[in-house]
Amino acid sequence: MQAQSEERRMIQEAARQFTMERVLPVANRLDPEKGKIPRELIDEMAELGFFGILIPEEYGGLGLGAYEYCLVAEQLSRGWMSVGSLIARGNGLIGALKGLTPQKKAEYLPRMARGEFLGAFSLSEPNAGSDVANISCRAVRDGDDWLITGSKYWCTFADDADFILVICRSDPVVDPKARHKGLSAFMIEKPRGELPEGVQGSVIPKIGYHGWTTWELAFDNCRVPHSAMVGDEGKAFYLACAGLETARAHTAARSIGLAQGSLEDSIQYARQRAQFGRPIADFQAIRFKIADMATQIEAARALLYAVCEKIDRGVRTDTEASMVKLLASEMSERVTSEGLQVHGGAGYTTHCAAERYWRDARLTKIFEGTSEIQMRIISDALLGKVQA
To answer: Taken in order 327, 328, 333, 339, is the CA torsion positive or negative?
Structure first.
């Protein structure tokens, strides 16, 4: 692994400073109340260029790579994973938006880089999570338009986004062995703070990830023009899978950021909390916990950087991305749980951030492909796929 460049150190330090000065105080105030990320914080992120890290310079972005993207995501998540995830509403949709025409890219990407055109991704359904090919939400052609009808689940940021990228079934399943065919993607533009016309929503109650709202959506003949289709008709499965390597590296970065926050808070608490006449940091049980937490974080971080370097070189890393996503998310749950244990009873209250890191870390084992899905991908690469 190459040594980190001066430019990368500067990016990391800028993200760290922003997190500690702006993100962390907001998270500590709002997350216990399930408050959403304030608009002014999003605007500040836009000014720092965080939404345009992966967007090419020709479209007003920074034109950087997965390495820099994950550096920023890790630091932001150290304060609040909701904020560390928010940068994907610009950068993270780049893979799926490769299907845009050159004209649409010129129209949308500069606005996205400025934080003026942020999106939500509507893929999952009540019966289609890990099994993307099982999508049943229908898109039916009606002249120059399409009518979308069906249910979607786990659509985060649907209300505050400027558009929703929705994956629907535009053709029925003909071959049960090729269920991934016949899916199409549509970009539905809408006003901020509202759902599109023809779409009703209900908020999904979550135990964490409180910085923004996650929705169950009901499309009822939602009319969109044919020009809203992204990519080729019937081939959206490939758009949905595009950018998964970077997305999984991003989740690993968020996991590491959560664990780092737990570690730093645990060190501070252990130095301040006294029992039996001395700081608990003097006791071997606590010292060994902190040593183990730090070691696990560094191991995951080293793998993350190695995977990011491969992604940026254009090397296919689907297996390695699954490995780092699996390793980092599993590590994060263990480390944040230990961090809560170091805090004792205080860790089980919302007075400390320890419980927030723990709750949010648990999610990293589920989204962007569960740990079980990652293990399947890795084992298939090593042993070959099991024949049906």
So the answer is: positive
pTM: 0.95
**368 assigned to active site:** yes
- Rounded distance between C-alpha atoms, residue 14 and residue 148, angstroms: 43
Tens place of pLDDT per residue across the chain (388 aa): 456 789 999 999 999 999 999 999 999 999 999 999 999 999 999 999 999 999 999 999 999 999 999 999 999 999 999 999 999 998 857 677 778 889 999 999 999 999 999 999 999 999 988 888 899 999 999 999 999 999 999 999 999 999 999 999 999 988 888 899 999 999 999 999 999 999 999 999 999 999 999 999 999 999 999 999 999 999 999 888 888 999 999 999 999 999 999 999 999 999 999 999 999 999 999 999 999 999 999 999 999 999 999 999 999 999 999 999 999 999 999 999 999 999 999 999 999 999 999 999 999 999 999 999 999 999 999 999 998 6
Q: What is the DSSP string of 282-304?
A: GSHHHHHHHHHHHHHHHHHHHHH
**Exposure string for 186-207, b = 16+ CB within 10 A, e = fewer:** bbbebeeeebbebbebeeeeee
311 vs 283: CA distance, rounded Å = 43
Q: How far apart are the first and last CA of the chain?
A: 39
Q: Which of 191, 213, 196, 195 is nearest to 204 (CA)?
A: 213
Catalytic residue among 245, 320, 330, 368: 368
Closest CA to 321 of 335, 306, 339, 341: 306
Asked if 365 contacts 371 with a C-beta cutoff of 8 angstroms, the reply is: yes
Q: Show the DSSP H helices in 141-243 as ranges.
A: 236-241
